[in-house]
DNA sequence: TGCCAGGCCCTCTTTAGGGCCTT
């Protein structure tokens, strides 16, 4: 059940980089974290109403053939809006996924109440010695078990969720606190809003 | 055929530019 105390980690596969340039979502994957554990997941392909490029087919493994019989974006996004409810939201490079979430939900006139935070931005502060801050690199860096099946929405959201739990564990270790100070999470997340910081401070 | 965006962050900065990330 969605609520303001759960965190939905989401990832979109899309036809390109910018909804402002006409790009659409082709897959949504998400997991819910509650009390430090993944409790639920959501995944669906969606038909964007146009053919995807060979680059995207190769990059994601999502072919035009796969999308041919997928439900339309509006139908899937309506279900996803119900899934996220009032939960707070997390993504790796959240500015990208937020743009697509905003664009797709605006098309079906579905608002959402959660606040976004970004595992990429926080990881740059917490894992400063990582070779880079791509999702796959950070999964290796944190010794998170992985099959390497990146660039699919559910898998990337699952890996982002595990990365997030690793980030929280690292902060707890660094500051030797079972609960992460509210002000510290606000600083790391660069958010002045109280909701996300309260959520992130959940004990392990 | 080839290209497209945008937010954050760093620095040889702030009257700016470019790399990193995401598909």
Short structural description:
The protein is an alpha/beta fold and 204 residues long. The chain has helices spanning 54-60, 64-68, 73-84, 94-107, 119-126, 135-141, 153-175, 182-189, 194-200, and strands at 7-14, 25-34, 37-45, 88-91, 116-118.
Topology:
Elements: E1 7-14, E2 25-34, E3 37-45, H1 54-60, H2 64-68, H3 73-84, E4 88-91, H4 94-107, E5 116-118, H5 119-126, H6 135-141, H7 153-175, H8 182-189, H9 194-200
Parallel strand pairs: 1-4, 4-5
Antiparallel strand pairs: 1-2, 2-3
This protein binds one DNA strand of 23 nucleotides through residues 11-21, 23, 26, 55-56, 59-60, 91-97, 99-100, 118, 120-121, 124, 132-135, 151, 190.
Commentary on this structure:
The protein has 204 residues and is α/β, with parallel strands linked by helices. It has one domain: Nucleotidyltransferase, domain 5 (2-Layer Sandwich), CATH 3.30.420.10. It has 9 helices and 5 strands, in the order E-E-E-H-H-H-E-H-E-H-H-H-H-H. Strands 3-2-1-4-5 form a 5-stranded mixed sheet. Helix 4 links the parallel strand 4 and strand 5. The mean pLDDT is 89. The structure holds one DNA strand of 23 nucleotides. It is an enzyme of class 2 (transferase). It comes from Reinekea forsetii. Keywords: Exonuclease, Hydrolase, Nuclease, Nucleotidyltransferase, Transferase. This is DNA-directed DNA polymerase. GO terms for molecular function: 3'-5' exonuclease activity; DNA binding; DNA-directed DNA polymerase activity.
